[in-house]
Amino acid sequence: MSRRKPRADQINNIVVVSDTHCGCRLGLCPPTGAKTDDGGRYMPSRLQNVVWDWWTEFWEEWVPNVTHGEPYAVVVNGDMIEGVHHRATSQISHNIEDQCDIALEVFEPIVEKCGGRFYMIRGTPAHVGEQGVHEERLGKQLKAIQNEDGQYARYELWKKFGQNHIAHFNHHIGTTSSSQHETSAVNAELVHAFVEAGRWGRSPPAVVVRSHRHRCSEIRIPSQHGYSISLVTPAWQLKTPFAYKVAGARQTTPQIGGTLIRQGDEELHTRHWVRDIARSKES
Question: Which of 25, 33, 173, 198 is at a distance of 20 to 30 A from 105, taking alpha carbons?
């Protein structure tokens, strides 16, 4: 089978990251630390430095390799900052400007790497403000691509890629405390996409992308695209005090990483780059 020549404006690769929770002492933080409004400086923990090394490896080694040096778009699928929420005390600072400054330092080089093909999805209001107000401001500063209503950070994205594929991005998805049912909601998102597309005679997405859970999973079923895929991205935040209270999360370890969606030479496929933080030492 001969490969069709790609259009000049065709993007075959989408790199997805989410849940960086910048501004949290368990979130993504540069090794040089974070300056605070009162002139102080927070320095990252040992594990934050481990996660930062993985962030560097992801962007400097893995992404160029799996995209074969081709252009790519980047989608940040929500929860870029930690925010002030639920009486939590794990933030670096409760000053949102301090948190946003960290996020800007983290993502400005990423915008440059992808040549400005940079999209932002609004995450959880508890983290990013009602109506995603903090992510909207960050999107404007980072010059994220706007939607038809002028929003820099949007609730959803229908992104064309490859010859004729569509991926749908939204931050939220249902959660479960039952490991054996972890993919139930992931499958339901794809089925719902088929139902809605059929109801109104629209093209269904080839890939459905969700985040929020901080756990990577994927299902795929045969379709006209070869496969239709529904997936949940990993995160860039370590295990928070909240996770130790939640059934199904208490014994799990953080899943750190990102996802590639790619139109290859012959078919659509996805790849996940996931790292695991070791559990506490036995004594």
Answer: 173
